[in-house]
Amino acid sequence: MKDVVHDLELLFRSRHGVVHLDTAEEERARGLLHHVAHELGVPFFTWTRSRGLVRAGQPGGVYGTEDPRQALEHVAQASIDALYHFQGVSRAGLDDDLVMALVRDCARALENRRGALVVTGADLSLPEGLRGVVTRSALPGPTEQELRTLLGQVVRDVSERRHVELDMDREEIARLLRHLSGLTLLEAEKTLTRAVVEDGVLNADDLGLVADAKRSLVEQGGVLEYTPVEASLAGVADLEGFKSWLSHRTAVVRHPDRARAAGLPFPRGVLLLGVPGCGKSLAAKAVAAEWHLPLLRLDPSGLYNKYIGESEKNFRRAMDTAERMAPVILWIDEIEKAFATGGSEDGGVSQRVLGTFLSWMQERRGDVFVVATANDVQRLPPEFLRKGRFDEVFFVDLPDAATRAEILRIHLVDRDADPDAFPLAELAAACEGFSGSELEQAIVSVQYAAFAEGGEIHPDRLSEELRRTRPLSVTMAEPISALRRWAEGRTVSAN
Questions:
Q1: What is the CATH number of domain 233-395?
Q2: Is domain 2-138 annotated with CATH 3.90.190.20?
């Protein structure tokens, strides 16, 4: 909280007369601004449409200021130093010639006084006429200390009505607070209260409630999906080069404060290129499991909108959500579909979204690790492959014989079949050029047949299914060979 108050105080002392404070937490903003006004030694006023301008500590409002135009006129003409907070401001309310003129009057008047006019509102965007007048500042999410204080407050409040047991050690509490990041204080309070009231106990099992709250928050935007994490790196065959790279960064992710003190930033992300079906998507899920972080998937199909400017706005909203939930893994599957080059049939929308994405990659503040996967490198813009966009570019190739045997073993075990009853080395040698997903589908096909006949998966039937299958490396031999040749010397092997 101290850092936020200091930054706001510095902003106002720098004579920024009108500020748009971008936040979904207007009540929290009001509390922080009241504190800043106290630090500045000036009165604090709040404006709402129902009460008009009200000075803190006074019982009533300023007469006739329920109309925002009258309230702005009062601010512009007042001769006192003060900090004014206008809550619940909408784009429609600002998109009025008289209102914009009054805001400009306030900006000029407040530049010569100690104080400022601060506007907040849900999804508020400024009209063009105010872009050079109003300074935009984003209110960061609740700090760990604010969430810790909230946790203590919730436990105390519920304890007044019933017995409450806090069954968590220090490390589990730290995990709970990390999981709460990304929620507003109000959302966090509701989630914690529900967890405590449900059974009178707050323990590690309640992390599921936090996950549900985050899932609801993410899915409201329609572009990001909160993806459950079930895979683990142990369940991913081979990819030893990728696993080794991740292991060298795990300590940084799990101990970010200590890493920052040592001058090590949070990892930026990786681009996984490769043959379809060889485990790129599985690897993205496994990263989240290994690092114990939420996994958000960007859905390219929900990104684009027919209205001008809406696609870029959708993308910025998605990235804001990802930053709010940080630390987090952001998975963009088949990224070439979202930012493909070639063709102007979309009116340049994909290029504008690409520019927004590249800017965000350079400037993002939250601990967001991007895992992007791609099958067709020829469709990727050259800017993506420039050094510095990602920490590393990996190539995921077709599995070798030993890896194919391990993949078969994993999928047989998952289906309660005894892998020792199968000649895995012989089967693996007979299916050269198969991807991991093609091996899995062969076992699934045999499983269907076995179920229909009331039997079990049999080695001979699996061998026959593998012989009948024509893998992608055969049916699409030319493009896959070209992809493998391109990757040689340009990427790091994930295998």
A1: 3.40.50.300
A2: no
pLDDT per residue as tens, the chain (495 positions): 557 788 888 888 888 999 999 887 888 899 899 999 999 999 999 999 999 999 998 888 888 899 999 999 999 999 899 999 999 888 888 888 999 999 999 999 998 888 899 999 876 778 888 888 999 888 877 888 888 898 889 888 888 888 888 888 888 888 888 778 778 888 888 888 888 888 888 888 887 777 777 777 777 666 788 887 766 666 777 788 888 898 898 888 888 778 888 888 889 899 999 888 888 888 888 888 888 888 888 876 666 654 445 677 777 778 887 887 778 899 988 888 777 655 454 556 677 777 778 888 877 777 889 998 888 887 877 777 777 778 998 999 998 999 999 999 988 988 888 989 999 999 999 899 999 899 999 999 989 988 888 778 888 888 898 899 999 888 888 988 888 888 888 888 888
Residues ≥6 apart with Cβ < 8 Å to 213: 183, 187, 190, 191
CATH T-level assignment (fold) for domain 144-220: Helicase, Ruva Protein; domain 3 (1.10.8)
Taking alpha carbons only, the member of 144, 367, 355, 147 closest to residue 253 is 367
Domain at 401-475: CATH code: 1.10.8.60
